[in-house]
Amino acid sequence: MVSRLIPGYHVVTGGSRILPALTEELRLDGSQEWRTTFRPDIPSSARIYDCLLGGKDNYPVDRKAAEIIGRLLPDVRLAVRQNREFLGRIVRYLVGEAGIRQIIDIGAGLPAAGNTHEVAAAACPEARVVYVDHDPVVLTHARDMLHGVPGTAIIDGDLCAPEAILADPDLTALIDFRQPVAILLLSVLHFVGDDADPAGLIARLHGPFPSGSVVALTHATADGTAAVSDAARVFGQATEQAHVRSRMEVAKLVVGLDPVEPGVVWTPQWRPEPGAALPKDAGESYCCAVVARKPLCSWLPDATSST
After folding, report:
1. How far is CA 294 from the centre of its chain?
2. pLDDT tens digit string along 81-135?
3. 2-7+18-268+285-293: which CATH topology?
């Protein structure tokens, strides 16, 4: 049952706020040219996130979008930092506790402090990390960052084409399909609409890998703050449109996998560091997190049964 994933789940009711006319200042021409050509005049989801994180790899149109989002969600910069802190915790868990040695980080975004391969290498120097993104600016920065770094790669790939990602020669050169893998989908699935079947995409990604593989994701939700839905509309003027989901809907994205405790929770509530100060209202993190493990195949014989 999905409800068992979500401690204390409840539905938050109430009317949504009306998005201010500020988005009139942002215009998207509807083309997909940004995928192959640098377009600093179109807000980029990766560069908006970089701006909210305090980075410098963004442009005036990205900063305008971040400003609009900040007016709707006053704690959004803190929420983005909490999402980044979750990245560190989940990678340390995967490599340090779960014993996983290979990670595929999809929708990795622009480099920042505490990148996936850095955290993984600190826990185990033999860990291997493949980043996947399709934003040309992200790809350029990531290639520069990873130049000469062993056990790492960045590939140009789209989450909506999982088979192409898994067949990329740079990925297959590092990832052993006979061993468990961790697939990171942090703040990326809310840019995938229901028509693309996000749960199916996740299943196709982990399908070729053995039991013990893990999927970790964070996802925007309006369960705690209705204005998240309004903020998502800002991305209607950006390179990728946002699709907010409830925590119950997020739980359904990993149906068939075994949730790792504590299930679907607000991002800062997922296994916080000892002594970490938790926010009074975790719902103001605007994102939930879930980590789920691929179970043993049901057709395997029971080791305790007689032959």
Report:
1. 18
2. 999 999 999 999 999 999 999 999 999 888 888 999 999 999 999 999 999 999 8
3. Rossmann fold (3.40.50)
Residue 36: band (very low, low, confident or very high) from pLDDT cuts 50, 70, 90: low
Q: Where are the domains of the chain?
A: 2-7+18-268+285-293
Do 122 and 165 form a contact (C-beta atoms < 8 A)?
no
Task: Give the Å distances, CA to CA, from 68 to 88, 164, 285.
Answer: 28, 35, 17
What's the average model confidence in pLDDT over 23-41? 56
Amino acid at 48: I
Q: Rounded to whole angstroms, how far apart are CA atoms 209 and 103? A: 12
Q: With CA atoms as reference, report the closest residue to 128 among 151, 150, 99.
A: 151
The full DSSP string for 258-290 is: EEPTT-SEEGGGSSPPTTPPPPS-GGGG-EEEE
Q: How far apart are the first and last CA of the chain?
A: 33
